[in-house]
Design a protein that fits this description.
Four copies of one chain form a homotetramer.
Chain A lengths: L2 E6 L3 H13 L3 E7 L3 H10 L5 E3 L2 H5 L6 E4 L3 H13 L3 E4 L7 H14 L4 E3 L7 H11 L6 E9 L11 H18 L3 E7 L15 E7 L4 E7 L7 E8 L2 E4 L7 E4 L2 E5 L4 H23 L7 H20 L3 E2 L14 H4 L1
Parallel strand pairs in A: 1-2, 1-4, 2-3, 4-5, 5-6, 7-10
Antiparallel strand pairs in A: 7-11, 8-9, 8-15, 9-10, 11-12, 13-14
Bound molecules: nicotinamide-adenine-dinucleotide (4 copies).
């Protein structure tokens, strides 16, 4: 019995995920789609040769009994409403980040889900499914480097356009580090600060780029995250955890080592799709398998979506205040307790 | 419409591939199985929870209309007969290496397939689907290093047991390099020689280990391949192509870089399953997709299986003679012309 | 004509430098030594087989006409007085860091030297002579990465003993980064801040370790420097400059790459002597050659010693206040203008 | 008491070594020079500001009592005669490779030296003084990788001119590997073979390039050495020893790691001077120190020069015959027994 997906939002990433589910992964089908742009929804059906119904909106789609899981890939502001309706309907949800655009919105989902009684929702933070991060997580869990004390990471992108605004550095770019790092070190955030180094002349007028974000966790781990979205040279994700007894570092993306023209080199990717393609596949396959065989998803939860929202808000505030901003999080409910890596695989 | 596989041989790798097809890949199902060990065939159905018929032998299995493709994972000596029957029945075949245990046997398959009129058979040489080798192939095709002149490679394994005999170094170990390297440099082999360095004290009495194999191609490329199956330290596949203008090298398997106890290190794998798991997945998905959407497989062909057999035979002869042994190959038939990487993806 | 050195302080590093000058470098001799511990001075003469006079104190030593340059390797608090006397006597001075223990002391030397009319003093900041840092400096000067925007560096040491106090993290450990980094990016410091991550359980009661120091330069470059003196795994100096168009990173110390026991590894050094031995040699040879052939030293100047003192003081203050502390530096006098790397070699 | 050098041959490398001895190293002076080109000898004195006598020829130079050691940097064919005269005169000799151009010539020197009763001669094989090779040697001596079984190495050069003839690939290029490798693995050569891969189109008409040399030692170690003198991309020396329990590899030359324009790269040198500058310095300083303090040199001996000559001759023969050529070496005389690395430093 394959898992029937209904897709809400057939834009760029919606289509990518549809292709992924139909052409690469196993155990699921697309049975229904919708988009406020109905033409686009229709076209998607045609282009990708799907055997699926097109619905007018998410509510209609949710009434289709063949829809067992909803893939929410609409614009961020539309996520909350669809997710809440899906929970109401008792359907599984895979929602691209953000879970909701406000912390309150996330909390409403958290509460609805708890009320429902078991996990239905997974948020699209795919980095936890990246092989490199997984190896780091395991090494840390196995105490390979002792207690983590510091993290140094970087999120670099060749360039961004006019539409990229200052707060997107937190809400669209850093958001992945926000989710990954607290999971990686197994701790919660306490505060966030943003500092602005000398601005690169390659950034547009309205932006400040690069930015350095300092996160501190409750146990005192200090995380320095560089965000540099006009770094020119490539899409480059770095992460290094410094522990009491040693250091682990994300492996470089494996590309050919070459010798040519006086250079001993290898390639750096230019975009995130290539960088995290395997992670996206792992993420969805895990969602499909968990839902089918364990009856609930085990990836990033609504609670993780809530943490990201609260931290993101504090980050945007910190961008403006240039001060240390507290991150106030209630204790993680029992319902959302994290599992060790070995319990998950 | 998914592709229905009938599996002949539910041993170690047969089961691995069944799991792969059912749990990871898309577009195919296992509809029938057989094994001379009927109990094992039955048990496989149960263990892996397959909805498949168990047949007495390959002939019976081939009569099942739901079987559109045959997966041949029996012992090597049994391959030829099953493949010939499958071609006779007009079914697609994925056959683990070797295609057949003799060059003549391979040639019989080549002829049967040509008589059939279109490609049906793919041989399980998965390295061509490894990401690193693919990047090398593309770099060479794009003339990134000019004409290839030399290749240096190594196939290292931690240790082997009592049953590993001298000729297995060629027929089971080197066989993968034999297939990969002529494809990589786009040339055919002319001769092979085996030399024996000082023997490691870690090898059993009856074995000579390491061995160095020198292959020369028709255009004069010289390939040095080290086979070292008791190297102790890990499973380690190396390959480097030296061209007129530069060198490309297979990337190391990406593992965490760590600093600990005075060592800046990363891990080396211990077995081939981990090393080539992605390649196996890519290989099968490509077989499934090609058969479904293009009507024929596009991976390593019967002709490639034949090349491997002829080269393997010459290699075993060279192990004994310690002389340069010619590799006599007819010209590649039009029917089996290789495609460029970009035509394949 | 070789350069005659008089050595003030024949302790650990004094003896190292004497050996260096007599056994490895060219163009200089030790002609006189003194130490408050006269026995040690005598013993040094004997142990190292020097043909040199032993004097009662620095004043007596300075009156020896054969002393053309003074090597000051006494304890820090004694440096200022000896250096001032040497300038008074018109002799060249190589003084181990610190130039003086207070900013005022350094300023007195700066003023005395300017009054003298030409440079006499070089301070023992040897990192500028390390091959890796030199390559970084040249790359930056050649605009290889565009304008520098951020620096990430780390100073890691396996462990420290009882006597290592909190302020030594700034004054003895970070002091080398303090000198190297403003030179590297060609800018002056504006402020310093110290933050304390979670403390390692390997550090003694009285210490806070690791520490993270944030330096900001006048043009807005932000430098994050990790000081971690009980990191266990080795002596590890890292430095990375992130510019508008690319990044340059200090090369790892070249050691054998090995494959053994499942590890692809190389070694990490355990102490600073091995790490910077070549730099010490280059530093002294340059001092000797410059003084002999150009009539003045060209390495780190009194002004650099003054910068280090002011920055160090602010750093110690920042350790206590846990606030951003300003670094107030007058403009660099014309007399101490920095030269480009190519003017130096 | 410094060591007085008389230099025979003030050509390119003669001048380099003179500069080295006078400007970088300690314990030696140039007291006399000669060259068949007397003008050049005179000019050298002037250019390098030497306080040395110019002699008509080597015989005259050897009569100068201030000449305690002779540096032979004339053309290869002139070496033997000068070395023999120097031994006759009881003077130390540092002779650039080759010791003599024929094996017989080398043997005459070996015999003269033995007759003299203690070592006087060191041959200019500087690689043994390269830090990377030293680390390899120590690792092997310490049994870090168990018994060595195979060696893979490469000697690559960007390009060569008209004058570079086929035999120079052995006598001028490979000669350094010839000396280094038997020392590295502590064994003697048994045979040599040369094979010619496909020729690069970048090589001139008269040359065959690349070449692969296979050396076998008495205990059965097999060495594959690639010589590629028109490799275009850089000067690149590689060496890897594969032992029973692991592998050690020469470290890459440490250059900046950078990220720029989609490349994660570091630099490859373009010439041998930069590559082996430190080795040359270590080599000469060791010669000077050993002669001064131990009364004899401890670097590569006349016997090593003889081995190189015999092996070189066999190599040139192998270039022509394209067969395995025996290398016939008498047992190493007690007089020339090798020392372990730790006995040397
Ligand atoms: N995990 C990641 O790395 C990652 C990467 C890219 C995008 N995303 C997230 O995915 C989401 C979609 O991004 P995108 O790049 O595909 O955007 P997009 O604009 O290409 O597509 C969004 C689509 O949703 C449709 N839509 C909007 N509101 C809707 C509604 N109420 N009901 C139905 N359809 C609606 C739009 O018409 C549009 O076709 C965003 O939330 C984004 O943050 C995540
Ligand atoms: N591509 C690779 O890297 C790779 C790796 C491992 C194995 N292989 C190949 O796969 C094949 C199987 O290897 P394995 O390790 O699974 O062996 P195995 O012994 O575990 O399994 C073989 C199975 O085939 C069955 N069998 C034998 N003859 C049969 C016949 N005539 N009809 C039906 N069943 C028959 C046996 O009973 C057994 O269960 C071999 O040819 C091997 O070379 C390839
Ligand atoms: N550049 C570097 O990396 C580096 C490394 C180590 C030490 N140092 C510096 O070198 C200096 C010496 O350090 P050390 O480790 O050799 O210390 P040390 O204690 O081993 O030696 C100092 C010596 O100076 C003598 N001395 C003290 N006051 C004197 C005076 N007024 N006149 C004559 N002699 C006097 C002492 O008796 C002692 O023998 C310190 O300033 C230290 O910071 C620099
Ligand atoms: N170890 C190395 O890596 C290395 C590198 C380069 C050269 N070498 C060796 O150094 C030697 C010199 O090479 P070069 O490049 O300097 O050559 P070069 O031609 O530049 O210099 C040789 C000099 O010797 C002089 N000369 C020749 N015969 C003489 C004689 N009988 N008496 C006095 N002077 C004589 C010539 O006039 C010339 O000035 C060669 O044997 C070469 O193989 C070794």
């Amino acid at each position: 019995m394959t898992l029937g997906f209904g897709v809400v939002g057939t834009g760029a990433i919606g289509r990518e995920h549809i292709k992924r589910i139909t052409k690469t992964l196993t155990g699921a089908d697309i049975v229904a789609v919708t988009d406020v742009n109905q033409e686009l929804a229709e076209k998607t059906i045609g282009d990708l040769d799907l055997n699926a119904n097109v619905y007018e909106d998410d509510s209609a789609l949710l009434q289709d009994d063949n829809v067992q899981a909803v893939l929410v890939t609409s614009w961020g502001p539309a996520h909350e409403s669809t997710v809440l309706k899906a929970i109401e309907a008792g359907k599984f949800v895979f929602v691209e980040k953000p879970l909701a655009t406000t912390a309150e919105g996330c909390m409403r989902i958290v509460e609805a889900e708890q009320k429902h009684g078991k996990r239905l929702v997974q948020v699209g933070f795919m980095r936890r499914y990246d092989n490199g991060y997984r190896q780091m997580k395991q090494a840390i869990e196995n105490n390979f480097i002792g207690e983590p004390l510091m993290v140094r990471c970087a999120h670099r992108n060749p360039e961004v356009g006019e539409r990229y605004t200052l707060d997107m550095a937190i809400l669209d770019t850093l958001i992945h580090e926000i989710d990954t790092l607290h999971w990686l070190v197994g701790d919660d955030y306490k505060s966030i600060q943003v500092t602005y180094p000398k601005k690169t002349s390659k950034a547009l007028e309205h932006l400040r780029d690069p930015q350095i974000v300092t996160l501190e966790t409750k146990s005192g781990i200090i995380i320095h995250a560089e965000i540099f979205v006009n770094c020119q040279f490539g899409y480059d994700i770095q992460c290094e955890v410094i522990g009491e007894e040693g250091i682990v570092k994300l492996p470089e993306v494996p590309t050919l080592e070459y010798r040519k023209d006086g250079v001993l080199g290898s390639g750096i990717l230019q975009d995130w799709q290539n960088r995290f393609n395997d992670a996206f596949n792992n993420e969805f396959q895990d969602f499909i398998d968990s839902v089918r065989h364990k009856g609930e998803p085990q990836g990033p939860s609504s609670w993780d979506g809530y943490i990201a929202a609260v931290t993101g808000d504090a980050g945007v505030k910190a961008q403006k205040s240039e001060k240390v901003e507290p991150i106030e999080l209630p204790d993680r409910p029992e319902f959302y307790q994290q599992k060790k890596s070995e319990e998950i695989v």
